[in-house]
Write a structure and sequence with these properties.
This is Glutaminase. With 312 residues, the protein is α+β, with helices and mostly antiparallel strands. It is 46% helix and 12% strand. It binds glutamic acid (GLU).
């Protein structure tokens, strides 16, 4: 544990917080299990770890394999949603914004909600997001890669991971059929599903993700040299939905322990946003019982404690 924790955000200070977070993250990672849901992800070593923070005032720090690409899986749902909202700011009724206590792959939850997704982070909502993004952009994967900064080929969709999910998936296919049955999709299922799996199979590093999420923290000012990525009211809504629904069934636990809007993925990534301050991202593959990265949650908890990051 560092000697002092304060609200300063110099690179040196951030690095001290990351050192403390790293220790907690590695300890917690030992309690988790690497996901087997997508066979290609099961091959990733449980001991890999990376963490990066970027602040709205331009400070950055990182630790571990911070430039290594990993499978962002459901972190892509956040960036696909933001890409969609740029094309269609009023897409919310189609994707929902309320919490759900059903699993992210629940079909029954659709049935209990008039066949509408509860929010854009459960798979039904994410499929609707990808479907609409595909309609607007012609390529939901490229639109999502672009939201991640795209450049220099370091963000790309890994065809091996996508194929691994295509070969083994039944659940997303079932959800897509139910959505189609109730008129919630625009594109044919056999067009939508490969796009969705390729979107989930995007590879990026924690540094890229922390930087790419800064627009969700930068609520007052416009990014240098250009238009805001999303208008401030939309950013507030995205953060609200993240807080309620970004961490599977653990929203209450995460709000209690950390107090930040956050999104996780079964590849072991966790990305958290502190409005007005910055974004922090961890990659640690073993997952806890809620499906969140055990090391990622513990590392962000320690970092947030040290940096004084909480929306409460
Ligand atoms: N590709 C996975 C799925 O759609 C992502 C799951 C996740 O990261 O939450 O089921």
């Amino acid at each position: 544990m560092p000697a002092t924790c304060s609200s300063q955000t110099s690179g040196k200070q951030l690095r001290e917080y990351l050192d403390a977070a790293h220790i907690q993250g590695l300890r917690a990672a030992r309690t988790g299990v690497v996901s087997r849901q997508v066979p290609a992800l099961a091959e990733v070593s449980a001991t890999r770890f990376a963490m990066a923070v970027a602040t709205v005032d331009g400070a950055e720090a990182h630790i571990g394999e911070s430039d290594a690409g990993f499978s962002i899986q459901s972190l892509s749902k956040l960036f696909a949603l933001c890409a969609l909202l740029r094309h269609e700011p009023e897409a919310w009724p189609a994707v929902g914004w309320g919490p759900s206590d059903a699993g992210y792959g629940s079909v029954a939850d659709l049935e209990h909600n008039d066949w509408r997704p509860r929010n854009p982070f459960v798979n039904s909502g994410a499929l609707v997001v990808t479907d609409r993004l595909l309609m607007h952009s012609g390529d939901a994967v490229s639109a999502t890669v672009e939201m991640l900064g795209g450049g220099a080929g370091e963000v790309f969709s890994d065809p091996r991971v996508a194929q691994s999910e295509i070969d083994t998936d039944h659940r997303n296919s079932a959800i897509a059929h139910v959505l189609a049955e109730h008129g919630r999709l625009v594109n044919p299922i056999d067009v939508l599903l490969p796009q969705y799996f390729a979107q989930c199979a995007i590879t990026a590093s924690v540094r890229t993700l922390a930087r790419a999420a800064l627009f969700l923290a930068d609520r007052d000012s416009e990014p240098s040299g250009g238009q805001a990525v999303l208008d401030p009211a939309t950013v507030r809504r995205v953060n609200a939905v993240l807080l309620m629904s970004g961490m599977y069934g653990a929203a209450g636990d995460i709000a209690y322990r950390i107090g930040l809007p956050a999104k996780s993925g079964i590849g072991g990534g966790v990305l958290a946003v502190m409005p007005g301050r910055g974004a922090v991202c961890v990659w640690s593959p073993p997952l806890d019982g809620d499906g969140n990265s055990a090391g990622g949650v513990a590392a962000i908890e320690e970092f947030a404690r040290c940096a004084g990051w909480s929306v409460f």
